[in-house]
Amino acid sequence: MIKTKRYIFLGLLILLTTFNPELPLLKLGFFIIKTVNVSDSKNADLEKLKKQFNFLVNTSILSIDHKKMNEVVLQNEWIHFLNINKKFPSTVNVIVVEHEPFVFWKKGNNNLIITKEFTLIEKFNSNNFSNQTLAKGNFDIEDLKRLYKALNNNNFDLANIASFEFINSERWDLFLKGNKKIMLGRYDYNQQINNLNKVLIQSKDEKFTYVDLRLKNKIFVK
């Protein structure tokens, strides 16, 4: 009797640890993905993405293969992340969230997009970015990231910047819309942008061509 109970217990244990509740449903045709919709792709190749996500068709909507989904993301430099919406019983909506462009970088003979997440985009249609803020020069992306952080921390209007130029003396010039040049120095960016905001507020009704912040604790406006 004891042996019989032991065998029953072992049998139940094996059944519970190996039974996949999806299999009967899959065999009956329940919860099988039949339709995959891909949307919100502005810069990535939408037709290419549709083909890449086609592997989902005829698989279970209950257990999407996230490893394969991540592989598709890694193969497309524009994709930041995905939102997956399941519409039972058989439809999956893949909503693409792309990296947001920050600057169009003219690096020698190469053209790149630097995103606001500071990833680099190499493949893009340059005609779509003719009005994008420019960045020129051979600079360290981490340095531009520090400047970007200082601009955000001080609520500077990024839309007012026409271009960033990294010049040979290893500092930045900003060119604002309206032909205004901002000469930054090689010291704390937060301090400089904070001072720049004050100057722009005080001089909003005045005409000037440049603000020189190269010397710490001294500001020249002309």
Which terms summarize this structure?
Ubiquitin-like (UB roll), single chain, nine-stranded mixed sheet, Rossmann fold, 6 helices, three-stranded mixed sheet, alpha/beta, 222 residues, 2 domains
What does this molecule look like?
With 222 residues, the chain is α/β, with parallel strands linked by helices. It folds into 2 domains: 27-98, Roll (Ubiquitin-like (UB roll)), CATH 3.10.20; 101-221, Cell division protein FtsQ/DivIB (Rossmann fold). It has 6 helices and 12 strands. A 9-stranded mixed beta sheet has the order 6-5-4-7-8-9-10-11-12, with helices on one face. Strands 1-3-2 form a 3-stranded mixed beta sheet, covered by helices on one side. Strand 9 (171-176) and strand 10 (180-184) form a beta hairpin. The chain starts with a helix and ends with a strand. Residues 9-16 have low confidence and may be disordered.
